[in-house]
Amino acid sequence: MPPNRATPEPRAEPLPKPTPAPIARPAARARWQAALALPLLGLAAVLAALLVGPAHLSPAEVAGALGRRLVGRSGTVPWRDLIVLQVRLPRALVALLVGGGLAVAGATLQGLFRNPLADAGVLGVSSGASLGAVLAIYLHLAARAVWALPVCAFLGAAADAWLVFAIASGRGRGRLFSGTLLLVGVAVGALNVSLTTFILSVALSSYDAGRQVVYWLLGGLEARTWDHLLLGAPAIVVGLAVILASARELDALLLGELGAASVGVDVPRVRLRLVLASALVVGAAVAIAGPIGFVGLLVPHVVRLAVGAGHRALLPLSFVGGGVFLVVADLVARTLLAPAEIPVGVVTAAVGAPIFLVLLLRKRSGVAVP
After folding, report:
1. Domains assigned to the chain
2. Is the bond leading into 339 cis (omega within 30 degrees of zero)?
3. Angstrom distance (rounded) from CA 80 to CA 53
4. 114, 132, 153, 157: least CB-packed within 10 angstroms?
5. What is the pTM of this model?
6. DSSP H stretches of helix in the chain
7. Tell me: the pLDDT tens digits for 36-58?
């Protein structure tokens, strides 16, 4: 018999490597379309804000007013020029700046905490600014100078941000810091609301002061001038510049704090810089326009649907989208019940709440919502 030979075992073929699931990214064409469409919409919204109002102005009259301002023509200023240059244009620019700042701050905090519900309210900055402004009205400081109310509101926001960050830094370390910061912000915000409500209840004994406090707390852009723009613009621009310079770090933080640290991001330093920059933007925005809700919560979601989660595109387009949203909302607030005027915060809440609810329902039903 032939010698038994061991039957060679069949060689196991290597298992195919699992193909990673493709990441859903919008096409480059969609990004370019959004990048072109949003600035055009912003320009159209500002032009509409200059045209529409109690005094009917034609496009030629608006263009003439802007042209005379650009060439610096002296002499008697027509009343149409005063309406365009001293009433409608600064109000539209304030709306554009405030809406854009709130939207960028919301996108920043959502990326920083990886929480789609994060906005300025979670840090208590808005409520701190409201408390400072209400104190300025109640103590009759706002009636003495146009800059008193914005300055007091900004100081309230800055003090609140410092307090929240100081408490969270003492109680939270590493990965615990983000959750601690949110909880401290909610608690301090609730305290600010209770103090604001107490001052409001006392101020209602005086009709004028009580009416001013209530109207400011609803958020509005009535009687906003170049002084308000000059007061708020430097702080908002500085905060936005810091945030835009940190876009790559924000992208890394989407991987989590450990993932961001593994690619060389100094997480504590970046987190501190982004929180303080967001507080600076929100404090200045609330200081000149009052607490306006749903801009920082809704606009980043809508823009993210078009351009994805990359912050180098998301942040600048959120600024334009937030500005367009607030300019249009203010236009509706001025014209819906003309000659009466609705606070713009009422309009943003009435529009933003249903849209945000639809987005949440789509996410719960399985439809991809960033």
Report:
1. 80-364 (1.10.3470.10)
2. yes
3. 12
4. 114
5. 0.84
6. 28-51, 59-71, 79-82, 89-113, 125-138, 148-171, 176-203, 207-217, 226-245, 247-253, 257-262, 267-289, 295-307, 311-335, 344-364
7. 888 898 899 999 999 988 888 88
